Automatic annotation (TrEMBL):
<dbReference type="InterPro" id="IPR006140">
    <property type="entry name" value="D-isomer_DH_NAD-bd"/>
</dbReference>
<dbReference type="Pfam" id="PF02826">
    <property type="entry name" value="2-Hacid_dh_C"/>
</dbReference>
<dbReference type="InterPro" id="IPR050857">
    <property type="entry name" value="D-2-hydroxyacid_DH"/>
</dbReference>
<comment type="similarity">
    <text>Belongs to the D-isomer specific 2-hydroxyacid dehydrogenase family.</text>
</comment>
<protein>
    <submittedName>
        <fullName>Hydroxyacid dehydrogenase</fullName>
    </submittedName>
</protein>
<dbReference type="GO" id="GO:0051287">
    <property type="term" value="F:NAD binding"/>
</dbReference>
<feature type="domain" description="D-isomer specific 2-hydroxyacid dehydrogenase NAD-binding">
    <location>
        <begin position="3"/>
        <end position="167"/>
    </location>
</feature>
<keyword id="KW-0560">Oxidoreductase</keyword>
<dbReference type="GO" id="GO:0016491">
    <property type="term" value="F:oxidoreductase activity"/>
</dbReference>
<keyword id="KW-0520">NAD</keyword>
<dbReference type="InterPro" id="IPR036291">
    <property type="entry name" value="NAD(P)-bd_dom_sf"/>
</dbReference>
């Protein structure tokens, strides 16, 4: 988005060797917290970029390890080894502030934290402090602890990318969500059990 904005505001004066540099993902290690449907989709894309794939979570998925070339590790090991830490786990109250200053401190100083799961998993105030202290290189957040409010310090940081909870904002995903909702209404009205019940 920064490059697009620069071009639109006529601030682009030609190529430069140090202009808009970033980190390559090929050959790097991604650590995925939660290898469910979304985490597995992230892993498939990471595999396409020739990344080493680590994952952590409450249970091991040996079939997915074979399919994706992923390695099951503890969360501590994942944080220490990964160049990119992607949070893709489901959320319950016991996971609130699972990623705090002490956990971030385990990460590489060149690492990035990505949260596309639920905001309260990351202790936002401590993420801000960790970024200010230079514990990690940056963060990308699609969800926020006090959503829709966004911590002001995050908005001012050049090494933080923030997006408005749009991780599933594709025509296909939203159409599928509508179809599932409509199908579940029909199931409920006809005495069948709806899919994806969260309060069994």
């Amino acid at each position: 988005p920064e490059g697009d904005q620069l071009c639109r505001t006529k601030g682009f004066n030609g190529w430069s060797p140090l202009f808009f540099r970033g980190r390559e993902v090929s050959g790097k290690t991604i650590g995925i917290i939660g290898l469910g449907e979304i985490g597995s989709a992230v892993a498939r894309r990471a595999k396409g970029f020739d990344m080493d794939i680590l994952y952590s979570g409450p249970s091991r998925h040996e079939e997915k390890e074979q399919e994706l070339g992923a390695r099951y590790v503890s969360q501590d090991e994942l944080l220490k080894e990964a160049d990119f830490v992607a949070i893709n786990c489901s959320y319950n109250e016991s996971m609130r502030h699972m990623i705090d200053y002490n956990e971030i401190k385990k990460m590489k100083p060149t690492a990035y934290l990505i949260n596309a799961s639920r905001g309260p998993i990351v202790y936002e105030a401590e993420l801000v402090k960790a970024l200010q202290d230079g514990l990690i290189e940056g963060a990308a957040l699609d969800v926020f602890e006090f959503e829709p409010e966004i911590t002001e310090e995050l908005k001012s940081m050049d090494n933080v990318v923030i997006t408005p909870h749009i991780g599933n904002a594709t025509f296909e995903a939203r159409d599928m969500m509508a179809e599932i909702a409509a199908g579940n209404v029909v199931k409920a009205l006809t005495g069948d059990t709806p899919d994806y019940i969260v309060n069994k």
